[in-house]
């Protein structure tokens, strides 16, 4: 056991908020960003519905839009020259929220299943509501660059699709002088190793 360098140093270590045996593995999380959820536990905003903005597997929490709002004091900075007091969402424990069934608009437990997509033929993960036995679609990931304007440093579609290199299997891609030098170095190393 390693001794602490000063008294109470072990209290400075960051411990997980949820015990390891109570954690839900990342692959089995049924709530994703973009889902509509209802808060079913905790002290604040119980019964309120909202959209999941962020999911933190490390802290075992989700952030729901418009729920569990707190005031955050901001120091003066370039965005807020005088400083300001803003309202911000805070994370909620994963166990205190439940998915909302879109057909009934009530919170429901869900089961993960594998479904074949008819258009692509791929097997994908999906969720089935245990309340109405309907599929709850997995929300599409939001493209972070969709709303940003095209800048001078962005690559255009024409440049991406343009072929710039033609490969020839019969010919070596490196110049012959370079390949000859590599061969000489290999032979020298082989001779030196034999001695």
Describe it for me?
The chain is built from 2 helices and 11 strands, in the order βββββββββββαα. It has helices at 157-161, 176-194, and strands at residues 36-39, 49-56, 61-64, 69-74, 84-89, 92-93, 97-101, 106-107, 110-116, 123-129, 135-136. Strands 6-3-2-1-7-8 form a 6-stranded antiparallel sheet, with no helix packed on it. Strands 9-10-11 form a 3-stranded antiparallel sheet, with no helix packed on it. β2 and β3 (61-64) form a beta hairpin. The two termini are 50 Å apart.
Short description:
The protein is built from 2 helices and 11 strands. It is α+β, with helices and mostly antiparallel strands and 195 residues long.
**Main beta-sheet annotation:** 6 strands, antiparallel
- Enumerate how many helices there are, as a single number: 2
Which percent range fits the helix content? 10-25%
SSE series:
EEEEEEEEEEEHH
Stretches where pLDDT is under 50 for at least 5 consecutive residues are none
Cα shape: extended
**Intertermini distance:** 50 Å
- Lateral arrangement of strands in the main beta sheet: 6-3-2-1-7-8
Radius of gyration: 28 Å
**Strand-pairing-aware structural class:** alpha+beta
**Care to count the β-strands?**
11
Strand percent estimate: 25-35%
- Give the integer mean of the pLDDT values: 85
């Amino acid at each position: 056991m390693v001794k602490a360098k000063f008294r109470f140093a072990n209290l400075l270590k960051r411990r997980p908020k949820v015990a390891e045996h109570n954690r839900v593995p990342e692959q089995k999380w049924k709530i994703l960003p973009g889902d509509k959820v209802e808060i079913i536990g905790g002290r604040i905003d119980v019964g309120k519905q909202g959209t999941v903005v962020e999911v933190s597997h490390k802290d075992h929490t989700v952030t729901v839009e418009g729920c569990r709002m707190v005031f955050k004091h901001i120091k003066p900075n370039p965005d807020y020259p005088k400083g300001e007091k803003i309202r911000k969402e805070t994370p909620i424990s994963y166990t205190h929220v439940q998915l909302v069934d879109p057909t009934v608009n009530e919170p429901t437990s869900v089961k993960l299943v594998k479904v074949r997509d008819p258009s692509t033929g791929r097997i994908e993960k999906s969720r089935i509501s245990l309340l109405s036995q309907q599929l709850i679609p997995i929300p599409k990931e939001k493209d972070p660059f969709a709303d940003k304007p095209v800048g001078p440093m962005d690559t255009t579609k024409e440049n991406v699709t343009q072929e710039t290199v033609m490969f020839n299997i019969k010919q070596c891609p490196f110049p012959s002088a370079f390949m000859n030098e590599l061969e000489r170095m290999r032979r020298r190393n082989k001779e030196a190793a034999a001695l």
